[in-house]
Amino acid sequence: MKKGHQVTMKEIAKRLGVSVSTVSRALKDSPELHPETKRKIAEMAKEMNYQPNLLAQSLRISRTKTLGVIVPEITSHFFASCISGIQDFANKRGYNVMICQSNESIELEKANIKTLVATQVDALLISLSRETNHFEHLDELYQREIPFVLFDRVQEDMPVTKITFNDQNGAYQVTKHLIEMGCKRVMYVSGPEDLYISKKRKKGYLQALKEFGIKEDPSLIKVTDLTQEQNIKVAQEIIDMNPRPDGVFCMIDPLAVDVLTHWKSKGIKVPEDMSLAGFTNNPTSAVVEPPLTTVSQPGYEMGKLSVSHLLDQLEGLASDEPISIVLDTTLVPRKSTGYTG
Amino acid sequence: MKKGHQVTMKEIAKRLGVSVSTVSRALKDSPELHPETKRKIAEMAKEMNYQPNLLAQSLRISRTKTLGVIVPEITSHFFASCISGIQDFANKRGYNVMICQSNESIELEKANIKTLVATQVDALLISLSRETNHFEHLDELYQREIPFVLFDRVQEDMPVTKITFNDQNGAYQVTKHLIEMGCKRVMYVSGPEDLYISKKRKKGYLQALKEFGIKEDPSLIKVTDLTQEQNIKVAQEIIDMNPRPDGVFCMIDPLAVDVLTHWKSKGIKVPEDMSLAGFTNNPTSAVVEPPLTTVSQPGYEMGKLSVSHLLDQLEGLASDEPISIVLDTTLVPRKSTGYTG
DNA sequence: CTGTTAGCGCGTTCAG
DNA sequence: CTGAACGCGCTAACAG
């Protein structure tokens, strides 16, 4: 299957008996052209349905007006929201977006970066995969002076702009909420421990305990790799504990939902037997039974801010100095922690 | 902010005192080169960290190995799954993907197509917006011989390859299931009526009624524009009906979830008071209380098939003749229709 | 086996 | 006000 022929400036020049450069000038409304020829050319361009070849244009001006985005997973509602925000605001400023997913694999992440760079994107927005625990590929971007920002899943030591949520404070708020609702033994269920957000949220959890003078208890911290299988395993382990915790804060909503589902199948009542809270405010968390207390992270907003700042930098509207943008999270109390709004 | 310099073939040619074309040939492992010079060039390329400029390459061979994708909404789990399938299988065959969302707006859809075409994508995969009820922009693609396929939200009369689900049969199965579970008055809640899937699913609904000798009752068909507001309004209207239906088939899961949530807030019990079913098998449908009977549509599979067939056509592995690929759906019976698996 | 030449489509001097 | 000439980075036909 072959693509049909596309009209070029050359052809419209030929038809009108003018030079290509004249056409080029006319099409970008250069002031130093005779209005009449300008009009004629515009007309002919329209008639022939001329569409500029962005490829050639990009090659010439060595800018593609295209941004590359890498996220761990498109099917995650949170990242989809980020993408949505990035798209909308990139488009508003005349930029296109190429999206890739790393499927939480560092190898795919590297490959994605490589092809995006090869296609000459002007800059990148990256959210790191779960596996990413070394950073040579980012160092290389940095050394090659390819502009990029990190969002949500960031590497703290990288000297680039990072957009994150106030994860620690969000976790602090949930934990505090659980305590205030009467929980005495609050557990934290973490994802992989070297994940940025696992660490931050643990900090917030510990901060709240400390504030209420509760001693940290290692048996009240569990770790899962976030596969459904492990999540359920952890859910069962909690049931089997003696004494059980009376409140469980899960690092992320899908984990909390897995736990909730398993508990329900085992006859555990939430929040009567144990309170349960998540993080992210996925759509799902609002419709499970009981509705899940969680922390909302506006992904769309994060995407919007990330791309806006990046473009500001690209276009010289903002300093090149890397900055750290921290977005606020909001506690969303629901029935799963005994809250009755 | 400026991008750093990128190594070109010219530079490595200069360093080695050979011509650019030799470098070009070496880099693509041409058989007619002296192994030694080939080795040298490869080495130098590596040393200088050469990365080919796909832009220039594309311009030269007038193929970008990039596909454009347009979906109504990235944040919909179903479309995210499609995208995921498209990405994975496009990448496997050496293609990149540019994704756009139309936000259910025909104007944005047109704009998206325009920019994707301008960036010279080799082909397009399009799922139409809800608003799209005229098709000049697709006609133009067709006339300009830009290869494209339509998936899920298709226009039936367009002479291009279309990938759809067997929506009618899916709707038939749900309706039949409701009847078999004992419902005497089954209602169909439709989305906008000129939507392809609204029509197809209605057909399936009617087909099942007919098969069971149930007369079609216009008062048992309602329409919503699928905004949450209208969905809730319809949910209330159903409560207010006298007599009420005893089973309600909602065209799509989010609608069913809205209805369920509203009913629960009004004390209606599902399935005791009324049975309820959706369509799509969103993750949400499995975790609401009660879990929602629905019809599963494998989006990833749809994306995979769409892109695979498109690439087959592009690369001459499949005939250019437009075909219609119809994927099977599967009934997923759950508690909301009284099913106890 | 390798260099020279000639574009791909466009923008930008530099002359007229 | 307009045309000719050049080059972005790369590939390919033609020589040798």
From TrEMBL, chains A, B:
GO terms for molecular function: DNA binding. Signal peptide: none annotated. Residues 7-61 form the HTH lacI-type domain. CDD domains: HTH_LacI, PBP1_LacI_sugar_binding-like. It comes from the Bacteria. InterPro entries: HTH_LacI (IPR000843), LacI/GalR-like_sensor (IPR046335), Lambda_DNA-bd_dom_sf (IPR010982), Peripla_BP_I (IPR028082). Keywords: DNA-binding, Transcription, Transcription regulation. This is LacI family DNA-binding transcriptional regulator. It comes from Algoriphagus namhaensis.
